[in-house]
Structures are given as C-alpha cells and as structure tokens.
Design a protein that fits this description.
The complex is a heterotrimer of chains A (102), B (370) and C (379). By secondary structure, chain A is α+β, with helices and mostly antiparallel strands. Chain A has helices spanning 34-37, 64-83, and strands at residues 5-14, 19-24, 27-32, 50-54, 57-61. Chain A has a 5-stranded antiparallel sheet. Chain B is globular, with a radius of gyration of 22 Å. In chain B, 27% of the residues lie in helices and 24% in strands. Chain B is built from 8 helices and 16 strands. The model of chain B is unreliable at 8-20 (pLDDT under 50). Chain B starts with a strand and ends in a 12-residue tail after the last strand. Chain C has 379 residues and is of the alpha/beta class. Chain C folds into 2 domains: 1-317, 3-Layer(aba) Sandwich (Rossmann fold); 323-366, no CATH class. Chain C has helices spanning 10-26, 29-32, 42-50, 76-86, 109-114, 125-134, 151-164, 179-187, 200-206, 212-216, 229-244, 264-273, 304-307, 323-328, 359-366; strands at 35-41, 61-68, 91-95, 118-121, 139-146, 169-175, 195-199, 222-225, 250-252, 274-276, 279-282, 286-289, 293-295. Chain C has a 5-stranded parallel sheet. A 4-stranded parallel sheet of chain C has the order 4-3-5-6, sandwiched between helices. In chain C, strands 10-13 form a two-stranded antiparallel sheet. Chain C is globular. The chains are: A alpha+beta (102), B alpha+beta (370), C alpha/beta (379). At the A-C interface, strand 1, strand 3, helix 1, strand 4 and strand 5 of A face helix 1, helix 6, helix 7, helix 9 and helix 10 of C.
Chain lengths: 102, 370, 379
C-alpha cells in the first residue's frame, strides 16, 4: 500500500493552489504542496526541500538530519561488527527512531 | 490496393529493367491537407497519395514501374545450405513521434532487428499502412521519409506496399505493418532452446528506455523526463557479434515484455534456469526513478534497440568486446548465467543480497499507488 | 537516487543481518517456533519480495503479510458498483491502475472498458479533476481507494473542486482505515503474532500515537518502518530487540518521514471531507466496525454514491477462498486450497491474488524461493 517516492521541490508552478514541481531522479511532475508548506511559510519556502510524494501530493517533508542519523547508525553497526568481537547486547539507541514508548 | 515498385537493379532482365534513358514517371501530389476516405477508394486520389507519400519517399528517382508484387532476385542466388528468413510485425504506437524516434523508424528497425536476431542479413521490406481519415498528409510524409532514411541506414529496400484508409475512430491515426526478407547464411544456428548451463547472458545496453519514453510522451501520467527511446537498427551490431562469436546460442530483441519476458521464454524452451545479477544489469537512473514513481519494474519495459544473447561461458568476454565495439553496444554487459535449476525459471540476485523470481507478466504493467 | 540508494546498501544489510542472527539466538521462543512478525502494509510486502528479504532472514523469523493492500481487500460488491458507475452513460471513471484488474462478480474495470465504458487510468486524483475540467459535458467519477495515506489527497481534491466550482466531479469513496483492522486481527482467535512492522506512509499522516493500544493493551511491539529494504531489516531488528528485552513499545524507524504527530494539514482535510462509516466490508475479513469513511453530507454533491444510483449489493467471497486466513496470518498462501490452481494472477479468485501486492500474487510472481534450492556460488 501507499507507494511513495522522495523527490526535491525545484519550482513553484501555481502559488494560489500551492502547486510545485518535484524532481525525482531526473523525472519531473507537478504536485500539490499543501501538506508540506506548514505554518508561517509560503510555497516558495519549500523550494530545494526534499519531500515524500504520493499520488501527486507532497505528503511529508523529509528530515535530512534524521536520514543521516539512521544511515550513521547502520554504518556504525558495520564498523562494530568488523572492529570488535562482541557487539554488546545493548542496541545503539535507535537513532532515527522517535522513541515513543507507550 | 497493393502497389509494388519493381526493383530494377535487383530484378532479373525479364522483370522489366527500365530501358536506358527512359524518363522518370512524373509524380502526382496530394493537394489537400488531410487524408480522407477518398484516398482509400482505389481511384485517382489513392494513386496520388501513394505517389506523393510512399513512392516519393521509397523510390525517389521514380524509376520503378508499379506492379502488384515486388519481383526480387538474390545476387548470386542462395548457396547450398543458405535459407531465406521472413518476418512480419505490426506497429501501433501513440504518439506517432516520440523522443528518440517515430513509428516509421520503429517499423523499419523493428523488422530489420527481427531478421538480424535470427542471424539473417536483412534485404527487403514491405510497408503496409492503415490510416485513420483526418490524418495530416504532412504527418504521413514525415513518417514515410523517416522510413526511407531508416531503410537506407539499414541497407534494405522497401519494395512493395499497401494503403488502406478507415473511418475516424476505426483506428488510431496510423498503423504500419512491415514484413522483411533476409538471407540466413550457413553455419549459424540460433535457437531459444539452445541455452546450456554455464552459458552467459549479455545485453547490449541500458534497459527500458523505449518503454519509459513512450509512456512519458503519452502524457497520461503528467510526468516529464529526458528519457529517449533506444530505437535503433541492430543488424550491424549482430553481424559483428556473430563474426566474433559464431557459437552464440540464442539471441532475441527485447521488445514488448522486456528482458524478463525473453529470459522466461528462453528458460522454458531450454529447460534451464537463468540467474541474473541486478547489480550487473544496466538501467538508467531516470528509468529507475520513472519506475519507482509509477510502481513499474524496468525488467518488463519495452526496448527497441536492445537484445539479449546467450553465449558459451568461454566466449563471453569476446562477445562483450564485440558488442561494445559497436555504437549500439557501448553499454553492453554480462548480466547473468544459465543454471541447471530451477528449470524454466528466471531468478534475480538482488543488489541488496537477496534472491527473487522474475516471472512472466499476465498483462501490461499498470501504474499503481500501492 | 538520493534517499533511496543509500537505503539499499548491501554492506549495511549484512551488518544488520548479523545483528538479527545474534538477537534470534538470544530469544528463547525461537528455540521452539519461528517468530511471526506481521508487516501490515502491502508496500512492505512488495519491498520484501522485490529485494528477496525473506531469502536473507534466518528461518527463525517468519514474515506474515498483512491486510494492507487496499485493492486486495475491496469487496466484490463495491467493485460491481464501480463497474456500474463506469457503465453509466456520460460517465468517465478515473481510477488508479491498481483497481483495473480487480474482479467483480461479473467483470473488472478492465473488462468494462473493453465493453465500451470510458475508464481512464490516472496517477493522481488531481488528474481526475483535470479530466472533469477538460470535459465539462461529462461526469467524472474518481474511484477513491486506499488507507490514510491516500485519503488526504482525495479530500484535498474534493476541496479543490469546491474552490473551483467544478460541478461534474465526484468521488466513489472506498477509503479505509488501518487501526480497526489491526485490532480485528489481534482479536481473532487463530492468530499468533509476535510483533508488527508498522505502515510508514499511513503513519506520516496519522502519526505514531494511534498505535499505542497495540503495545499497551495487546502487549505486542510495533516498529513504524520505511519502505527501502534497509528500513525493513532495521525494523525487524528493532522488533527483535524489543522481544529480547521484554519490551512492548511503539518505535519509529522511519523518523526521516514520519513525525510523531502526523501531518496536521492532511488530517484537517480528511476531517473536513470524510466521516467514519459505522462499518465497512473487507474482502476476506468480513465487516469491520468503523473501518471505512464516507463523504460528509456537507460535500454530498461530490459523493458519487449519493449522485448516482449504485446497486450496493453485498456479495459473498467465493467459498473456496481462504484469503481471510492468509490475511490474518493463520495460514501461508501456499496452504490455501485454491492457490495456484483455481486461483492464479490470470484468474484471481481471492483478494490476495488480485494486486501485485497481495500476498498470494507476490508469492506466485516472485515465488517461494525458499523451496527452490540455491545453486552454486554467486555469479
């Protein structure tokens, strides 16, 4: 369910209706930006931002720091593996996880 | 109505070689902007359309008298063991002109490639057109010129043809059919059932460009991308490959259904498994992006200038070099190998490290949201 | 592709797999039976098959492919209604490609099109609205389906139609909600699940909070997961860690896309346009309370169910079908009586064979590689 692809907003095509152009691996498509503009911002503020696109709508802003943190965690996992004999049983506190316990 | 131009320099003397100095027949022109049902009526309007559009492009010197059939001869005849190869294909594409090609080029290259992948040297083509009334005559002229250029590039001649005009809505703008004749030299034996365990699988370049370019050009999904069709004639590339590696087992152009479909056919016919390596399979980033957006798998996208071939393991590197030596093979790669099991199935080793089955599709790929 | 390729890195996958192996070795349950983890969302099922993830995981982990394919769970009666709408004179029916092949009791939309109905495939509900704008003398009905991920896009499209005063656009609403469905699965007696891989894109809309009851009341861990293969592996590992440490929490692996609170603009649009139905019928699972939405009466003129007379018949699933059991994870697709015989992708009988994301179609297409011995060394 719910095919979504990350793309970068490269232009605003219709300010009134909050439409912009997103580029995904060199392919462009006009998408609706209403869900990612956010409070106190204008459509133009979105240019350059990465978003998740689903059925022609930008549905979420991609948090680049979170993405980097997740990848860093996974990279460290590889280094721990190759660098020491025992990784230890405590998991690195899941970076990229919001840690929202019950 | 069927009209054939005799082929003077190829025909035997009794087939009506034009007398030296005979003046070229004057060509009629169509003076209306669009094709109407009158152009299919068998009368003068039709004759004018054929004269203007098709003969104007395929027989520019106007030397050939018109007959109901093309009369062909083969220079030197067929040597013992040589055979004729005959193929036919219909071309239906929307839009008629797309980035990287058009229906005319497709109709020539496609049929030339169908002959070439069997190891045949293409010689003659036919051209049959079904035209929807209302099509611009200029569009038809462009298509015919494009076919003529493509034929010249392939060293083949378009020697007979037919036109029909159908009422608006009975077809979509223009359908073409081309049949092709070629000569199959001795010593080449290619077959879909000839793959053997250990053999290697090669392709001549990035996959899926044509399918993505067409979908994109159609505009239904409102996407725009720089992807162009890979539409190209492959007779030269294939001749080079067969000269370097006469042991090629099997070759097929990767048109409708793409790589996945052709490999499944080979696996089934040869009762072998085929394992391809995702990391070695060349696909353009834009095509991957396009597929990710619509939920497609590029392995099933159509190509019009790509082949897959199966060669014995020891000849794989030579085959790769032979493909890469040609302009349409610069992106060639060894993408997999033939295995004993699972017989009749194609398995992909994913770049990520897993394995999955690459099956035949039931129908077309449809864009999906989930 | 940025933010895609990095999450398909095989080296990181190997490191994760080693962690997963270690975790499995420390979990007692794994000595007696495999751990059953359900990925709720069909998108995850797709990732799992496309990248061959099942072939990489240890045998002690069994992935159960859940009900999160909105096309698969669409009941036959709703498909029939949609076909009836498509065959109404003057109507253009716009749909996502997914729904084209779903069989109704008599035909699919694909067959309806072949019989002369004007059915158009679109990528976005906005493209359906454009069809309405471009064809003012026709009625354009959009076949709205999907979970909370897709709901805001159709809601926003209805609001856009209202703003533009487009009168010939309406929505045949089949949107469904994931939470009651997970609850229904947890309540069924034949289900033994040890944890959940949570739906990442639903969560970017609804946030992480609505899942709390799963941890608190049902004592099962859930990790909201992204859709790249590393996301799935990392989420499996995070669930295992919880099991290993005796925790039951809602964790979020997909923090780059999923904010804890979801998306306010999206939820507001959904709230304005839709309201919960008392119950909604699911193919394979039966009727589930408050699991679907309909268009609010304030937007009745955009509601195809009010504007057109649709048959609205309830039609039972084929008897031989065991989709419900597969959906709940009670049996594997290959254990279904009709799998691969009466029910194939060419002639799908049950919901799960219909869409490429249905568990059965995925098994059929991508195969049960576990049962095919690997041969030789890597190429």
């Amino acid at each position: 369910m719910c095919l979504g692809v990350p793309g970068r907003i490269v232009a605003i095509s219709d300010r009134e209706n909050a439409l912009g152009v997103v580029e995904i691996a060199g392919v462009r498509r006009e998408v609706n930006l209403i869900c990612v503009i956010g409070d106190g911002r204008s459509a133009d503020d979105c240019i350059g931002e990465w978003v998740l696109v689903h059925v022609g709508f930008a549905m979420s802003r991609l948090d680049e720091a979170e993405a980097a943190a997740t990848l860093r965690l996974l990279a460290e996992l590889g280094e721990i593996e190759t660098g020491s004999t025992e990784a230890g049983s405590a998991p690195p506190s899941a970076a990229g996880a919001a840690g929202s316990g019950p | 109505m069927n009209v054939a131009a005799r082929v003077p320099e190829a025909g035997p003397p009794e087939a009506g070689r034009p007398e030296a100095g005979r003046p070229a027949r004057r060509r009629a022109r169509v003076n209306v902007p669009t094709v109407t049902l009158a152009h299919g009526g068998g009368g003068k309007a039709m004759r004018d359309l054929i004269d203007d559009v098709f003969l104007g492009a395929f027989d520019e010197h106007g030397l050939a008298p018109l007959e109901d059939q093309a009369r062909l001869s083969l220079e030197g005849g067929l040597a013992p063991g040589e055979r004729l190869a005959l193929t036919t294909d219909s071309y239906v594409v929307d839009p008629l002109f797309f980035p990287g090609g058009d229906i005319g080029r497709l109709a020539v290259y496609g049929t030339v490639n169908d002959l070439a992948v069997g190891g045949a040297t293409p010689l003659y083509l036919t051209c049959s057109a079904i035209i929807e009334e209302g099509l611009a005559v200029d569009t038809l002229r462009r298509v015919a010129r494009s076919m003529a250029e493509a034929a010249t590039l392939c060293g083949v001649r378009i020697v007979t043809g037919d036109t029909k005009v159908v009422p608006r809505g009975a077809c979509d703008k223009l359908y073409l059919n081309t049949a092709g004749v070629g000569v199959l030299r001795t010593g080449i034996s290619l077959g879909v059932d000839a793959a053997r365990p250990g053999d290697r699988v090669l392709v001549n370049g990035v996959l899926g460009d044509h399918g993505a370019a067409i979908l994109n050009a159609r505009g239904d999904m409102a996407l725009s991308s720089p992807i162009e069709s890979d539409c190209a004639p492959l007779h030269g590339l294939i001749a080079g490959l067969l000269a370097a590696v006469p042991t090629v087992r099997f070759m097929r152009d990767l048109t409708r259904g793409g790589l996945a479909t052709v490999l499944n056919e080979a696996a089934e016919a040869s009762a072998v498994g085929i394992e391809i390596d995702e990391a070695a399979t060349p696909i353009r980033e834009e095509v991957n992006g396009f597929c990710d957006i619509l939920g497609f798998d590029p392995l099933y996208l159509a190509n019009e200038g790509r082949i897959a071939c199966v060669v014995p393991e020891e000849d794989a590197e030579v085959a790769l070099a032979a493909l890469r030596a040609h302009e349409h093979g610069a992106g060639a790669a060894i993408i997999g190998r033939i295995t004993e099991r699972p017989a009749g199935r194609v398995v992909m080793r994913t770049r990520f490290g897993g394995r999955r089955i690459v099956d035949m599709l039931v129908g077309d790929q449809l864009p999906r949201i989930c | 592709m940025k933010y895609v390729d990095e999450f398909r890195d095989p080296d990181k996958a190997r490191a994760l797999l080693r962690e997963i192996e270690k975790s499995v070795a420390r979990i007692d349950t794994c000595r007696h039976r495999p751990l059953a983890l359900m990925e709720v969302c069909g998108g995850h099922t797709h990732t799992i098959f496309k990248f061959g993830i099942e072939t990489m995981l240890p045998d002690a982990i069994e992935l159960v492919h859940g009900p999160g394919c909105p096309v698969c769970v669409l009941p036959i009666g709703r498909v029939d209604d949609c076909v009836a709408l498509a065959e109404t004179p003057g109507v253009i029916l716009a749909t996502f490609g997914d729904a084209m092949r779903v069989p109704g009791s008599k035909k699919s939309l694909m067959q309806a099109r072949a019989d002369g109905a004007d059915v158009r495939m679109v990528y976005s509900p906005l493209d359906a609205l454009r069809l309405a704008r471009d064809n003012p003398d026709r009625e354009v009905v959009f076949f709205g389906l999907g979970f909370e991920t897709t709901m805001p896009s159709t809601a926003l499209t209805v609001l856009q139609a209202e703003r533009e005063g487009i009168g010939n656009f309406s929505l045949y609403c089949n949107h469904i909600t994931i939470i009651p469905t997970i609850k229904a699965i947890l309540d069924s007696p034949d289900v033994e699940l040890d944890g959940f891989i949570g739906p990442g894109h639903v969560s970017m809309v609804i946030g992480a909070r609505p899942y709390r009851f799963i941890a608190e009341r049902y004592r099962r861990p859930l990790v909201i997961a992204g859709f790249e293969p590393l996301d799935v592996l990392q989420s499996v590992w995070m669930v295992l860690k919880q099991i290993e440490q005796g925790r039951c929490e809602i964790e979020n692996q997909y923090g780059r896309i999923v904010p804890d609170d979801g998306n306010r603009a999206a939820l507001e649009a959904v709230e304005r346009v839709f309201e919960l139905r008392e119950q909604f019928e699911w193919r394979g699972l039966g009727s589930i309370d408050r699991s679907g939405v309909r268009v609010r009466s304030a937007y009745a003129r955009y509601d195809a169910e009010r504007r057109f007379a649709v048959p609205s018949l309830r039609i039972a699933d084929p008897e031989a079908c065991q989709c419900g059991e597969v959906l709940r994870g009670a049996i594997k697709p290959r254990h279904c009586k009709v799998f691969g015989t009466a029910c194939t992708p060419e002639t799908p009988l049950g919901a799960l064979m219909v869409s490429s994301e249905g568990a059965c179609a995925a098994y059929y297409r991508y195969g049960d590689l576990d049962r095919i011995p690997a041969e030789g060394a890597p190429a």
